[in-house]
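During the no-cost extension, the postdoctoral fellow (Dr. R.K.) reprocessed legacy sequence entries with the updated structure-token encoder. One reprocessed record is reproduced below for audit purposes.
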Amino acid sequence: GTMKGLDQMITETGTFKHYCHNPNDSGSLCGNDILCVINGKNHDLWIGTYGKGINHVILPENNTDNPEFIHYLNEPGNSEGLSNNYIRCLHLSRDGKIWIGTLGSGVDMMDPATGKFTHYQNRPGTTGGLINNFINCIQEDKNGLIWIGTWDGISCLNRATDSFISYTVED
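Re-encoded structure tokens follow.
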């Protein structure tokens, strides 16, 4: 992923295919400013963009066909959709969920089976939630805890209890 689209190396030939947003093609990449790419579970990719949401890329079985790009964008008023189009990081958890770190709206967890999103955000005036809504990184540990790096520290989500413990430099 680059700031000018997506490049795919064809290993058989050592050449590259370039994919970019085409405003005249709704089936193209939804944005060229790519900040993160992860492998999915089913010969697919998930791509986070700066301001243009997420692309789910279904890769063809051979290198001669073009991939299919499925777009996930923020839709104001849709509480089960993507919360923000500025995607900083992505993580695939062991159970196949896609964890999405945004720039300003916290973390979304997407269930690829339903296409629905669950939102985890810092809510000023409340305790026990995400420490900050600007996310740098997301990882899952061997116990299934989700660790989230933010601009103000680290938050750890215990999915069994749906609760956070957060740490700052003062800790």
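DSSP finds no helices and 14 strands in the chain. Residues 58 and 68 are 5 Å apart (CA to CA). The remaining legacy entries will be reprocessed before the final report is submitted.
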